[in-house]
Structures are given as C-alpha cells and as structure tokens.
Write a structure and sequence with these properties.
This protein has 187 residues and is mostly helical. It has one domain. It has five helices and no strands. Helix 1 packs antiparallel against helix 4, helix 2 packs across helix 5 and helix 3 packs antiparallel against helix 4. The longest helix has 54 residues. The radius of gyration is 16 Å and the shape is elongated. The chain starts with a helix and ends with a helix.
C-alpha cells in the first residue's frame, strides 16, 4: 500500500470517530481543549490498537486464502464503507441535557464502537503488502486529530457535518478497496 492510500485509509477510519466526537462536542456544555484532547487520546489509542488486533487475526488466515486475498480486502472495505454511508444517512436525535464532561468508560466504549471497522480493515491489511505498524499509527494519529477537532467544533457545526464526514469516510473506504483490487488485478 502506498503513502497516499495509507493517508486516505487513516482519514477514512477517523471519520466515524469524528462524527461521534462532533456529537460528543454538541452534547457538552462549552467543551474545553483539555476535554477535546482527552477524548482524542482515548479514541486515537483505541483506533490504533484495533487494526493491529485485526491484522494479527488476518495473518493467521492469510496463508489459507492467498489466492483471493485481494477480493477479501475489497469486499471487507466495500461492506464497511457501505455501512458507514448508511450510518451517515440515518438521522440521530440529539441528547436532551448537555453534560460538562463524559466519563472515561463512556468515551472508551464509544471509541471501541467506532473502531470495529478499523479492526476489520486490519484483517484485510493482513492480506496485502503493508506495514501495519505505520498504518495503525497513521490511523491513531488521524483519529486523535479528527476527534479533538470534532469535539471543539461540535457545538458550532452540529450533527449534520458529522453525518457528512461519515458518508465521505465510507466513500473513501470503498475507494481504497477498489484501488487495492485494481492494483492486484493489473500487476
């Protein structure tokens, strides 16, 4: 996987966390930078670890599916992208009472829920030529930045931008999957 694909993948993986962060920022009363950084760190670490777990699981299976691994990567990314688009198109109801700060466990649970797709991407990355440590670090860093930004601007832009970010992230995942398939079939 080349540098551009890694960056697009990292941004795509961070968009669902960004959408959640916008919602968290909207739900908070005047979020401070320290709260945004705390949220970004929690989400970023979780989002960096889950593709490593997925990659380890996928590596175990890689030798059994080597002949059609590119199709697996494409299918996983296509399904994940479609699910992100569907999630972005659904309407969410805003929380009733603004909070001052979210608990660690609530943030960790939300971070894990938004990183399931990163674990599945990690599985698909086990089937292609890729440095998983660099990719996981890029995903974690992009998530940290996007979540921190999302919390801080959540009150300003509301849930609509978060939904569009989710849709764009889904389209980016489908694009990365298509590039992986194209590169493999044309080599």
């Amino acid at each position: 996987m080349n540098f551009l694909s890694t960056m697009v993948l990292a941004l795509a993986m961070s968009t669902d966390a960004f959408a959640a962060a916008v919602g968290k920022g909207t739900a908070l009363r005047n979020p401070r930078l320290s709260e945004a950084l705390r949220t970004g760190i929690i989400f970023g670490v979780i989002e960096a670890v889950t593709p490593l777990i997925g990659w380890a699981l996928g590596s175990i299976a890689a030798e059994f599916v080597a002949d059609w691994d590119h199709w697996i990567a494409f299918a996983l990314l296509l399904v994940l992208g479609a699910l992100m688009i569907r999630t972005g198109l659904r309407a969410d109801e805003p929380e009733a009472t603004p909070a001052i700060r979210h608990s660690f466990w609530l943030l960790a649970a939300t971070g894990f829920a938004t990183s399931i797709d990163a674990m599945a991407v990690g599985v698909s990355l086990a089937f292609i030529d890729n440095n998983i440590l660099i990719t996981a670090a890029a995903i974690g860093l992009a998530t940290f930045l996007m979540v921190t930004l999302g919390v801080m601007i959540g009150r300003l832009i509301g849930n609509v931008a978060g939904k569009w970010a989710e849709i764009l992230g889904g389209l980016a995942l489908i694009g990365v999957g298509t590039v992986i398939l194209y590169e493999h079939l044309t080599m």
